[in-house]
Each structure stands twice: as structure tokens, then as C-alpha cells.
Design brief:
Number of strands: 10
Strand order of the largest sheet: 1-2-3-9
Distance between the termini: 34 Å
Number of helices: 10
Low-confidence stretches: 1-7
Mean pLDDT: 91
Largest sheet: 4 strands, parallel
């Protein structure tokens, strides 16, 4: 929801388009509240929507910890609740089963896709020529073994040995990402073929560290970003980052609109709809 005159976000544009396609069966009036990552503001926005007797709520949670009180408010009102991007967790979804759902990225598939970027390279990511792809991961929280294995699966499918040397955690900040990547580069030196950076900030920071260390993406190391942005895309076009994943906002918006349509018709909503993101490469 938007309370100011700033330019529309891509999410708003795609949601409007998705609802327009279903205008014969869905409410035509959409309200957008831009809460600027402020949970208190989001709580107020939810209260406002309830006072205005909205038909359904689509929400990107600022803080997962706020999921339960928000769910309880919407459940008391009997309104459909569609979570996008930030997963509230199965417990919250099951507590309001049939009238709430989560629509967001297929996280494990995203890690497989990042591995596919490496697997698609002429040397299958083995840029130092030692017949094994050695990678490091830079993420904002501890990465599960399942997701680490997902990263390697596409490379292993090519019959190439692959390993994770280290899964490091950093604050989601470009400078902190640079510092963390610099430590990885120093620790593993030429033995490190690939760096996977989970977020935009970490990918940009890792690119800074790689340049500062006198190394070059595509020449003696590869850098893969798990998040796309205009800045990341610019780095890809400048060959500072090999590739990234972009969020399929259009598919998510269409799934959200379809979920609202089903809920307003009295149909049960599935627990989750997972969206596969797309590869962003040079060109």
C-alpha cells in the first residue's frame, strides 16, 4: 500500500496487471501501503485495511515475528491472507489453513540454479584446473547442508567433483561482505574457484574484495549472486559478476491474484505456491 506520491514499485505494477486480467471476477480497487520496512507501520496499515473493510490482504511481512498477531487479526475478520516473499512458516499457515497461503521463491531450487550457472561454464567452474570445483558461500544466515548440497548438485551432475570449502555468514552490508569475502580469498587463495554470495549487498562486496585482491571474475575466479538488482546487473555486464537470479515478480503477482480469486469464491487455498526464479547472465 502506498501513502506517498513516489513512483510505483515493480510489485505494485505487476499486481495491478494481474488483477486487471481477472477484473471480471475480482475487486477492481487496490490499495498499496508502503511501510518502508517498518513493522509498526505495517501493523498500522493492517488495522487501516480492516477498518476500510477490504476483501483480502496481500502482505510482505517486515518481521516474521509479527506473523502470528497479524494472522490472528485477519482470521478474526475472516479475510483471505496472502503472504508474499517472506514465508511466515508452516505453523502460522496451518493455523489459518484454507484461507491463507504463502507465495514466494523456491529457495532450494534457487540454489540449484546458482549451481547451474557454474555448470554451464566451459570449464564447469574449475577455473584453476585442478579437476575439482572448490567453492565458498557468503550468506546472511547459516546455510543448511541441504542448500549447500543443492548448490553443488548441478556441478556434480556434470560428473565433476565439487566441494564447499566454507559457508561463511556476514551482515547483509556491502562493506561487511567485502571484509568477509577478503577473509575467504586470503584463506583459500588460488584453491578457491567460485564464490556464491546470497544477497545483492554481499555480491557487490565480494566483487570489491575480488578486485582488491588482484583477481578477476572469469579469469581466475567466479562470483555468483543469489539476488539480482540493477547494480548487480551492471556488474554482470562489466564481467565483475558471472550471473545472478532475478525474482519473477510477474509470476508471483499472478499467483497472488489467483489466490485471492479462489478465496473469494470460497475455495480452499493450498499451503504454498513456490516460484522458480530466473537466471540473469551477461547480454
Amino acid at each position: 500500500n502506498r501513502e506517498d506520491a513516489k513512483a510505483e514499485t515493480l510489485v505494485e505494477i505487476e499486481l495491478k496487471a494481474a488483477f486487471a486480467e481477472l477484473a471480471d471476477t475480482l475487486p477492481t480497487e487496490l490499495s498499496f501501503y508502503n511501510v518502508s520496512k517498518d513493522q509498526a507501520a505495517q501493523n498500522t496499515a493492517v488495522d487501516t485495511m480492516l477498518k476500510e473493510s477490504c476483501a483480502a490482504v496481500i502482505i510482505e511481512l517486515v518481521d516474521i515475528a509479527a506473523a502470528q498477531p497479524i494472522m490472528e487479526k485477519l482470521q478474526a475478520a475472516g479475510l483471505p491472507l496472502i503472504y508474499i516473499e517472506n514465508d511466515p512458516g508452516d505453523e502460522i499457515l496451518n493455523a489459518y489453513a484454507d484461507k491463507s497461503t504463502y507465495i514466494g521463491p523456491d529457495i532450494q531450487k534457487n540454489y540449484v540454479l546458482q549451481g547451474e550457472i557454474v555448470a554451464s561454464l566451459p570449464n564447469t567452474g574449475n577455473i584453476n584446473g585442478d579437476d575439482q570445483v572448490s567453492a565458498a558461500i557468503l550468506s546472511v544466515s547459516e546455510l543448511s547442508i541441504e542448500n549447500q548440497n543443492a548448490l553443488l548438485s548441478a556441478v556434480a551432475a556434470k560428473g565433476v567433483r565439487a566441494e564447499i570449502l566454507e559457508a561463511a555468514v556476514s551482515e547483509n552490508d556491502r562493506e561487511k561482505g567485502k571484509e568477509a569475502a577478503a577473509r575467504l580469498l586470503k584463506r583459500y587463495g588460488d584453491g578457491l574457484d567460485v564464490v556464491f554470495a546470497e544477497s545483492e549487498a554481499l555480491a557487490l562486496g565480494a566483487a570489491d574484495a575480488i578486485s582488491a585482491a588482484g583477481r578477476e571474475n572469469g579469469v581466475n575466479i567466479y562470483l555468483i549472486s543469489g539476488e539480482d538488482s540493477q547494480a548487480v546487473r551492471n556488474f554482470i555486464n562489466d564481467t565483475l559478476i558471472e550471473g545472478s537470479l532475478w525474482d519473477d515478480v510477474e509470476a508471483r503477482a499472478k499467483a497472488a491474484a489467483e489466490s485471492v480469486k479462489k478465496a473469494l469464491k470460497g475455495e480452499s487455498l493450498g499451503l504454498k505456491t513456490l516460484i522458480t526464479n530466473k537466471l540473469a547472465m551477461k547480454g
